[in-house]
Amino acid sequence: MSTQKETYLRIHPHDNVLVALQDLPQGTVITFDGQTFTLVDKVAAKHKFAINELPVDKEIYMYGVLVGKASATIPQGGLLTTENVHHAAEGFHLGERKLNWHQPDTANFEGKTFMGYHRADGSVGTGNYWIVVPLVFCENRNINVLKEALVDKLGYKKAKSYEGDVEQLMELYQAGKSVEEILNADIQATEDKPNAKRLFKNIDGIKFLSHSLGCGGTREDSDALCGLIAGYVTHPNVAGATILSLGCQHAQVSILQNEIAKRDTNFSKPLVVLEQQKVGTESELLKQALKQTFAGLVKANETTRQPAPLSKLCVGLECGGSDGFSGISANPALGYLSDLLVTMGGSVILSEFPELCGVEQELSDRCIDVETANRFMHLMTTYNARAEADGSGFYANPSPGNIRDGLITDAIKSAGAAKKGGTSPVTAVLDYPEKVTKPGLNLLCTPGSDVESTTAEVGAGANIVLFTTGLGTPTGNPVTPVIKLSTNTAMYQRMPDIIDINCGTIIEGTETIQQAGERILDYVIKVASGEAEPKSVKLGQDDFIPWKRGVSL
């Protein structure tokens, strides 16, 4: 895309629709590809309209791929809607390897490093956290007790508090004010309370990862939970862990230990494992947990940040609250960043398999070998079949917000979402909750659900997550910084408390995709070094939801 200001755009030469880059009134004259026509309908920014008449069953192309079919005749200049378009995507098969790609110029990043925490297994963390995790939901209450005891006292409580706001409301109520007067009252913002001084200078936080799994469900889910927790325990951003087990649940300590060994055969981090049914009283369990966790923190505090090459970055690529600009601004900017990192020997993770529907052929052709391609196609096919069996295939993925902002079929959403992965070959295909072991572009099977996918990417080893959004979402993660990128400037200005980087500059024509990608990577290096703190970290947005394999899109 050039930096010239445009009002509509054809994304790929084979597309038969245009995207409105700003609100276009009904009757707007469109001059395109040697013809002139007028808009039949008002077309809001991010939505699509037909270049030529699209009769019933006519295939609709965006990003050069099939994204739907006309379910009613769409006139030239007519708006595409859920009433006149239905989901459609190309089939896929084992094709030829297409591994040639244009590696970007990395001269601006030659010799650059980040300041990270070096681990015994050779990985490097962008943070240094202690985690406290239950093996089963029965221990959530004890996890919360430990959180109340440790976080504030050790200096990790987030500063922002709304207690002062509540006190003002109490005063109004006690003064006899009516409900209407209370609702109309001008509540004065209270000043942030300063954090207590941190006792452990080199530990970025103590994080508590409660969940609702571990027993009562399928063994598949409890085994996957153990694998996911093992991914967090062995994660480069994690210095050590406290694990609480009840004892009788499906997710046994032995399963967790086996999963840890799979990921790190020489595991040597401090690890506290306590089983309530063996220890006895709750009081004794919590006393042991506090003492042993504190001792582990003393050990973890000995690690300091040291220089590391950019090849030690493993970046998770995520999107949520996507809109019609996602695939032409923030997502391709991440695609360029992905190609930069891969060229320099780093790793990137593209997940959300329901949002790869329609681009399976391209991605399978980019897999480094037949075995990898077959695994990708098998995971896509079986996941969709399982969803279809429960009455909700990939076609049901777009949310009401996605549809409202121009993503009216899953294939339209998917074709834009896949842009985050850039153009490099696919070096590995992973099933949840497997861990990244190869540099390059990794495909990880996860749902499209933002938090479940982000949780899985971090469990796979992502030490930075880049998250694009067009509608705005506060998603974060307990141990890995989640950097938010807006697809449009209006949302960036409306929600500055959760967005770190604006990619609306690409839509406005003031920055190229390549320039935005390099700007994002500069910020990533600062975050990885502890020099910048993303909004999700400042807000303490510690979202952790394991994928219950049963069907989640």
Strand order of the largest sheet: 18-19-17-16-20-21-22
Tell the overall outline.
globular
Low-pLDDT sequence parts: none
> Cα-atom Rg, whole angstroms?
25 Å
- Helical coverage, percent range: 25-40%
Q: Strand content of the residues, in percent? A: 15-25%
Structural class: alpha/beta
Give the CA-CA distance, first to last residue: 32 Å
- Total number of beta strands: 22
Give the overall average pLDDT: 94
Largest beta sheet, briefly? 7 strands, parallel
Individual helix count: 17
Give structural notes.
The model has no long low-confidence stretch (mean pLDDT 94). The protein has helices spanning 140-150, 163-174, 179-184, 219-233, 253-263, 276-279, 282-300, 330-343, 360-365, 370-389, 400-404, 410-417, 450-459, 489-494, 504-508, 513-528, 535-538, and strands spanning 8-9, 17-20, 29-32, 35-38, 48-50, 59-62, 65-70, 85-86, 113-118, 124-125, 129-134, 205-208, 238-245, 271-275, 306-309, 314-319, 347-350, 426-431, 440-445, 464-469, 482-486, 501-502. It has 553 residues and is of the alpha/beta class. Strand 6 (59-62) and strand 7 form a beta hairpin. The chain starts with 7 loop residues before the first strand and ends in a 15-residue tail after the last helix. It contains 17 helices and 22 strands.
